Amino acid sequence: MHQGRLVTAFGTVLLLDVLRVFLPSLITLFGQAGATSPELMGAYALAWFLVPLPFVALARRLPPLGVALAAGAALAVGRVGLQFTQGGDPQLYLASALVGLGAVWLVCTAMATAVDGRATGHGVMVGLVAGLAASTAAHTALGTVDLVWREGPAAWVAVFVAPLGLLLTAARAWRATPGDPAPIRPRGWLALGPLLFLAGLYTANPAVAQTIGGTPFAAVALSVVAVLSVLVAANPRRYTPNPLLPLAVLFAILTTLWLAPLLPGEVQGTLPAWSLAALLLGQPALAACAGWAATAGTRAPIRTGLLAASGLLLFVVLVFVFYAAYDLHAPNDHVPFVALAVLAAAILPRATAVRPTPGGGRTLLRTTTAAAALTLAATVVAPIARTGAPASESGAEGLRVAAYNVRMGFGMDGRLSVAEQADALRALDADVVALSEVDRGWLLNGGHDGLSMLAERLGMTAYWGPADGPFWGDAVLTSLPVTEVRGHALPASGPTGAQALAVTMEWADTEVSVIATHLQPEGYDLANPSASDQMSALMLVAEETRWTTRAPVVIAGDLNFEPEELPLEGWSGGDYQDAFASVRPFPTMAADTRSDQQIDHILTSDDLVPSDPANPDVPHSDHRPIAVTLSLAE
């Protein structure tokens, strides 16, 4: 493979790696999970993507390739340093600086293609797709838990692979003999933003594939397809007659992913398994667009740099517009289509894909085929090797129910803490766990499937209830036999959507229904109509579930109300009790939040008797896990 492709591939892997640390650090550390205004967070993120602009202005004074390789070297060294940070402000600010260096590296690499033959526009675009593929495969093999969140000798050895690869290939590229520049149209570099956004959002996101397919082998399939898509990027004319075809395919895929959650089902909002087929077509189509963007152009380094920088700025804008819509309770379905429109503008009209170098196609075919085989082997073995904990059996003394707002899987130190959250839940010895704020692949949080990781570590089966889009919501974990699963949408209010997931299971020669929810009322005051509407809808779901199953009912989750604000007796025709009424105070927020609120609850119908409450103070989320043992009333 051409050195320019290899340098770009290694650099892309590192850029994506630090982005998966930067974005969640921005939310959990800088943003304090909502305490900082979205405008300030957006300005902070945008500032790091503006760092390349001074280097664009100095393109005639500083050699772009030299600047790119220097920034890449700093990115490589800094990524190793990121492994030492262990969360907190050092993690936030080093990840931020590395994102800025990554942006400088990519923009200056694009400019170098216009003035230096050691890097070609076509090679950089192919290398970008190869880097996306390598990152997808690595993320899949790691179970979507990045190396930066891991410890131990294996993680430390692995963390040096991409930085050393970038340093070695950068040195070889610098020593290569300069040739005639092979630039592409400057407008083609505008595609950088949509390519990274759509790949991270859907088409190269193994957590999304796993969520849709319901198995880690769906992520394996996505990884193999991503690797093979490098061939499409290298020679798009062989696979697509013109750029309109991949654009049309992407439009069809985005439309499918938009409409499929609206189809009726037991739990509305989930993506059906058949939509995985659409997702698997996405990365080859996106790779074809990257190849078509490499249309031969003229030397214009400054214009190239400005449009490449604009493409990266567009990436961060698309990310924030898409995910801020959840907090603003505004529709965001149009955002991926806006990205697709920009991608079309970057490659149309009169796109003419650059022909591969004679003989280079065969080398790339052999390399990519070998990489696909290796990816298949590595990513298939990894899920098999990850064995979950043995399933726990329900205790004879009662039903142990736990609830935990897992904060998208991140602890108070801003590090991914799913393993620690699983340990805390295991210590509670729960038979049923209700989870709130579960993330199943959000790019903003680094693209992790937290629910599958928790289920695997606890040896339980997961039942999913999307609350705001198909990849964020609530869940129930249990090893008990389940007889019915129903999802109920609650009235829209507050920062995000809300739902109630009712799971009925066999227990103690009878059945019990556990309803997992996370209320998001506006104002958090029952005097507010929207808050009252959400609570009324939840209690109606509880009564409907009790009526249809004739079983005791448990409501568990983050209700965002203090105990005295909860309407329990006679609400919607039924009497419910607070399982922790005998324990006061009973804070449910982690001590590090400096809050003594009790807003997480377990409510039960009056035919259940609570005992043995627990609320261990652990810093693996901004909430504490809570638990209680329930037995049937005599």
Account of the 3D structure:
Helix content is 50%, strand content 13%. By secondary structure, it is of the alpha+beta class. The protein folds into 2 domains: 3-384, Up-down Bundle (Growth Hormone, Chain: A), CATH 1.20.1250; 399-632, Deoxyribonuclease I, Chain A (4-Layer Sandwich). It has a 6-stranded mixed β-sheet, with helices on one face. The protein has a 6-stranded mixed β-sheet with strand order 5-6-7-8-10-9, covered by helices on one side. A hairpin with a 2-residue loop joins strand 6 and strand 7. The radius of gyration is 26 Å and the shape is elongated.
Top-tier CATH class of the largest domain: Mainly Alpha
Strand segment count: 12
**How would a crystallographer describe the biggest sheet?**
6 strands, mixed
- CATH fold category name of the largest domain: Growth Hormone, Chain: A
Question: Which architecture name of the largest domain does CATH use?
Answer: Up-down Bundle
Helix-residue proportion: 40-55%
**Number of DSSP helical runs:** 20
Q: What's the arrangement of strands in the largest beta sheet?
A: 3-4-2-1-12-11
Task: State the fourth-level CATH superfamily of the largest domain.
Answer: MFS general substrate transporter like domains
Number of domains: 2
Rg, alpha carbons: 26 Å
Global structural class? alpha+beta
Beta-strand share of residues: 5-15%
Please write out the topology.
Blueprint: H1 3-30, H2 38-49, H3 53-57, H4 64-82, H5 88-112, H6 121-141, H7 153-158, H8 161-175, H9 192-203, H10 206-213, H11 216-234, H12 236-239, H13 244-259, H14 275-293, H15 301-327, H16 335-347, H17 360-385, E1 399-405, H18 418-427, E2 432-439, H19 450-458, E3 461-466, E4 472-478, E5 482-489, E6 499-507, E7 510-518, H20 529-549, E8 553-558, E9 576-578, E10 600-605, E11 608-614, E12 626-632
Parallel strand pairs: 1-2, 7-8
Antiparallel strand pairs: 1-12, 2-4, 3-4, 5-6, 6-7, 8-10, 9-10, 11-12
Helix pairs in contact: 1-4, 1-5, 1-6, 1-8, 2-5, 2-15, 4-5, 4-8, 5-15, 6-11, 6-14, 6-17, 9-14, 9-15, 9-16, 10-11, 11-14, 11-17, 13-14, 13-16, 18-19
